[in-house]
Write a structure and sequence with these properties.
Layout (H helix, E strand, L loop, with lengths): L9 H11 L2 H19 L3 H38 L20 H10 L1
Helix pairs in contact: 2-3
Length: 113
């Protein structure tokens, strides 16, 4: 457990926020955390190892899917904004000149039109 004490970095906390935003995933994660805790407190090392590995594999899979969905959204927004699908994603290099500088601004602009 000491090895995990310094783990909650900014990236981990951001990932947790993304995962907890979806109730169906948050419930699975809660069940996995309970299984991990139960195995650890029962001092069942093999069960704790299997439970932790399953949790990390699931989390990595969900975050990968989330990243892919975000990439698809970025491409869709770029297409709508002018068709430049090959443009670099936001946050890389010089800022692009667009009407909507982020997703929330874009959505607000769409609602007003």
């Amino acid at each position: 457990m000491r090895a995990l004490s310094g783990m909650p970095s900014a990236g981990v906390l951001h990932d947790r926020e993304k995962l907890q935003a979806r109730p169906e995933i948050d419930e699975v994660l809660l069940q996995q955390h309970r299984a991990n805790f139960g195995a650890i407190t029962a001092r069942d090392a093999p069960a704790a190892g299997c439970s932790a590995e399953a949790h990390m594999t699931y989390t990595q899979h969900v975050l990968s899917e989330s990243g892919a969905a975000e990439a698809r959204l970025e491409i869709s927004i770029r297409r709508i904004e002018g068709g430049n699908v090959t443009a670099r994603p936001r946050g890389h290099g010089a800022p692009r000149q667009t009407q909507a500088t982020d997703r929330s601004t874009y959505r607000d602009a769409r609602r007003q039109n």
